[in-house]
Amino acid sequence: METHLPRLPFPRPGAFGLPEEFRIFQRAKAPAKVLTATGDEAWLVTRYPDVRSLLADPRLGRAHPAPADAARLTASAVSTAGPVGSYASERADHARYRRRLTPAFSARRIRALRGRTEALLERVLDRMAGLTPPVDLHETLSMPLSLLVICELLGVPYGDHGQFRVLFDDISQTTDFARSTKARQELAAYMRELAERKLRSPGADLISDLVHSGEISLAPPPPGEVAGTDDLAQIAASLLFAGYRTTAIKVDYGVALLLSNDAQLAALRDDPGRAESATEEVLRYSSPDLPILRYAREDVDIAGTPVERGAAVLLSTLAANRDPSVFTAPDTFDISRDPNPHLSFGHGPRLCIGATLARVEIAAAFRMLFARIPSLRIAVPVEELTRRDGVLMGGLSTVPVEW
């Protein structure tokens, strides 16, 4: 193995800076051979046109022809860290997965969740306003809101929220595979028990819809096949990452960015209707450190570089969303940026199915937080904000605020 290869993740200058390695790779206009956090070789793609094209390219997938030999992104049991699914049936399985989840994000349900999100946010803000500052925004606003919304969508009872959060935090570990695997197994067991409860007493939630749709069987599987409740665990884990951790991180970043950019915050205060465009800029500016992992399903040429079947291909939305060939002044945070064709929710057939709900939640947080606590300010110099290491999606360690 070429141990001299650059190894992910690359250090970032400050909480919001872009690793210099990405600029070097973009200027080279070709994928770069790197090592993942687990020491496996992979091709890293950083230019916007290449990342966008490859996100929708059917020659790349999440399954691997020889899973035991596949490169891994991190030492986590989460599907985004390594190969997932059947190589032979991947496309059909993905189509079925999307079909199952599409009703959960219908226009009707999003309208209902918009109202519930604002009601839940009002409760969270009431609790936050009663605290003595300074407080950590993540623990008092971003995380509680995201957890309440995703649990409402799934149908997780309020009394189980604490258990759900612990399981998710353990699954997210990128350096402790045993801990992550144990939590994944416990999540599967929890989802099995929850599904059985929903079978007896359904509610207006995603798990109830799935167990009563006929799409998910709770019967013991035939030998060699996967239980339907394992499908539920996969769905729950996917939505937790997309709708809980990711959304909370974006709210953290957005508030920190707005509080450290007086002109941008003033523009939002003057026109709360800018919350939607502010959300898009926060999504662009706060892409995760870790790239999206794909495997080549056949030999493929990427920007003139031959990539062999089975090779890991890493698509960095962090780098693509700061590509100067697409975004003017890409390192400037500008809530009036238009157009803003960021790739934070992906592109093509795997475009994040929960993108609309995430946008609703983040924009509501920006509108309502600054209206409720107009004197809100960051409690430390922005240069002192640090990033969370060792967990998928990263994010800021804390966001101390006061008023």
Short structural description:
By secondary structure, this protein is of the alpha+beta class.
Set down the secondary structure blueprint:
Blueprint lengths: L19 H9 L3 E4 L5 E5 L2 H8 L4 E2 L28 H12 L5 H23 L5 E2 H18 L6 H11 L5 H24 L5 H8 L14 H32 L2 H9 L4 H11 L6 E5 L3 E3 L2 E3 L4 E4 L1 H4 L34 H18 L4 E2 L21 E3 L1
Parallel strand pairs: 2-8
Antiparallel strand pairs: 1-2, 3-5, 4-10, 5-8, 6-7, 9-10
Helix pairs in contact: 4-5, 4-13, 5-9, 6-7, 7-8, 7-9, 9-11, 9-13, 11-13
Features:
five-stranded mixed β-sheet, globular, 10 strands, Cytochrome p450, three-stranded antiparallel β-sheet
- Give the domain tally: 1
Q: Looking across the biggest beta sheet, what order are the strands in? A: 1-2-8-5-3
Output the structural class.
Answer: alpha+beta
- Shape from CA axes? globular
What is the overall number of helices? Answer: 13
In the CATH classification, which architecture applies?
A: Orthogonal Bundle
CATH level-four homologous superfamily name: Cytochrome P450
Q: Taking all residues together, what is the mean pLDDT?
A: 89
User: Could you give a short account of the major beta sheet?
Assistant: 5 strands, mixed
Catalogue the unreliable spans.
none
